[in-house]
Amino acid sequence: TAIAITEQPVSVSIPVGYSFTLRCRAKGRTCLQYQWFCQHQSVCCQIPGATKEDLPITAEQTQLYTCRINDFYKNAVFSDWVKVEVHHCVARGLPPRLWQGEPVIVLNPTEQQVEVGKPLQLQCAAMGVPAPTYQWYRNGNLLEHQKKKKLWITHAKVSDSGTYLCCASNSHGEHWTNAVDIHIGETLPPAEHLQLCHLVFPLATGKIALLVGNNRYQHHPNLMAPITDVFELSLLLEQLGFQVVSLLD
């Protein structure tokens, strides 16, 4: 009770290179001292010179932050831990000019066909200040327990088929991902699947696919699509019997 935090820092989700400020405010019986800490990959360290209520940051990598406040009587409290999530792959034109921190979708889910009993995973991501919260929907109905960037169903059922989309929201508004159709059903028997592959791709020996996704350009904003494209194509080509070599930049 000697020190009371009146304003907690908030988590943010921002593009690399974006500058912003983490804020912490407290009141106590004497003058207060502030010290910020950060944590990356389980290593927590004190930030040199970060001894003010505000912590200016230029986003470089995803990290956790907290602030310690103490008084002259050796009382001390810590603020909430907050996450600064940094997006290195942001599509051209994002964030929009005069961005006020409203949610901006940077990764949309993709259509899938999943075999019954296999896992279903859908993923999306959004920037926002404060960091957006997520809510998934199927066929327009809210999915009560799907409130993360990744929607995960361990054993998919036919009833899980439908049209999925996710809403990212914060205090500045909300934004919706693209809607995608998900089909859960039996796959082709191995013999029919192999026959279909032979019709699409003539038989060959030593089938090798080289995929190169260029993301960083000297005179162009970082792109998001190459990484997801290489990932999706790698999975498809491996299923068709290719030895895949994937390279980025």
Secondary structure topology:
Layout: E1 3-7, E2 12-15, E3 19-23, E4 25-28, E5 33-40, E6 43-46, E7 54-58, E8 63-70, E9 76-78, E10 82-87, E11 104-107, E12 112-115, E13 120-123, E14 125-127, E15 133-138, E16 141-142, E17 150-153, E18 162-170, E19 173-176, E20 180-185, H1 190-200, E21 208-213, H2 225-239, E22 243-248
Parallel strand pairs: 2-10, 12-20, 21-22
Antiparallel strand pairs: 1-4, 3-7, 5-6, 5-8, 8-9, 8-10, 11-14, 13-17, 15-16, 15-18, 18-19, 18-20
Domain Ig-like: 3-79, 103-183
Keywords: Disulfide bond, Immunoglobulin domain
Protein name: MALT1 protein
Keywords:
22 strands; Immunoglobulin-like; 3 domains; mainly beta; 6-stranded mixed sheet; 44% strand; 2 helices; elongated; 249 residues
What does this structure look like?
With 249 residues, the protein is mainly beta. It folds into 3 domains: 4-87, Sandwich (Immunoglobulin-like); 101-185, Immunoglobulin-like; 207-248, no CATH class. It has 2 helices and 22 strands.
The number of E-state strands comes to: 22
In terms of DSSP E residues, the strand content is: 35-45%
SSE succession: EEEEEEEEEEEEEEEEEEEEHEHE
Give the CA-CA distance, first to last residue. 53 Å
How many structural domains in the coordinates? 3
Proportion in helices: 10-25%
- CATH class categorisation of the largest domain: Mainly Beta
User: What's the CATH architecture name of the largest domain?
Assistant: Sandwich
* Class derived from helix and strand content: mainly beta
CATH superfamily of the largest domain: Immunoglobulins
Domain Caspase family p20: 205-249
InterPro entries: Caspase-like_dom_sf, Caspase-related_regulators, Ig-like_dom, Ig-like_dom_sf, Ig-like_fold, Ig_sub, Ig_sub2, Pept_C14_caspase
Keywords: Disulfide bond, Immunoglobulin domain
Protein name: MALT1 protein
